[in-house]
Write a structure and sequence with these properties.
By secondary structure, the protein is mainly beta. It has two domains: about 50 residues, no CATH class; about 230 residues, 3 Solenoid (Pectate Lyase C-like), CATH 2.160.20. The protein contains one helix and 22 strands. The strands form three sheets. Strands 5, 6, 7, 9, 10, 12, 14, 16, 18, 19 and 21 form an eleven-stranded parallel beta sheet that branches. The termini are far apart.
Amino acid sequence: MVLDGHGAANDGGGGLFVWRTTSTATDDGGTIIRPNNLASGSAGRWVRIYSGAINVRWFGAGLGGADDAPVIQRAIETAIHSGSYGTTVYLPAGNYHIRQPVYIETSDASYQGWIAVRIIGDGKFNTHIFMSGAYSTAFIFGGLSQASNPGGPATRIRHSEISHLSIEQVGTPTRLDGAIQFSGGGIGFLIRDVAMYGPWRGITCNGTATCYTWRAKIQNVHMEGVVNIGIYARFAVNWDVSQTYIGGANHLLETAGIWLDTRSEGWMFTVVETGGFDTGLRMLLEPTTRSRSPEPRHPVPRT
């Protein structure tokens, strides 16, 4: 079967499907479709034939809906469960409206694999994400599994990426945090070629003593009109920020371009500019008697 589109012909949600008589897979709204006349437990599914990136248009995102977050989330869940680490979720050029955060993580408690998802747009002047409603956060690395197991499964997140898109705050949010947030630990992240307009905070890492975020790269990121802090980090180790501009909305006290808080160590900065803040770079000075960061290391044999 050839589908013309998701809601209308040529809207980007179409594609080639094949009928699988014995399949009882869960309908995800984009790659697996259960006909309405079949009960949920009955066999028979239309299965999309595709290779490469998973397109959010297949799930109905960017087609004029009031909140694209739930369908983008379904695309990410599909990517995570595809059996291929490093799967890409593609946001074609267009406008996406979200009223709640999108998690790069799975709510599936039975999932045991690594999580390595790339969220890729068509360019920061072509793929636009508009945040409205209560939240000031568009994407969260981790977080879903943290409520029941803090510092636990979400630390399996490895080598994930957000790139080639823009994020803009619409209206005044009441639940305040970074437009991109690290909430579950992990290692090897990339935020590249991203523009942000009017965020309360740009990028935040809210780690804990048992949940560090290691080796994140922030490259060619442009922030305009940041209200509070451009980059705020706790328990973030060995981050690299380069070719990045962070512009504040005002010079109010307690605002900062970059604020490195508890146990944020080993950061590198290359061609980074901040302006419009009370402080360009603020760092928390910890006592010299503090314990060492829990870095992976080989045991030393005792003699």
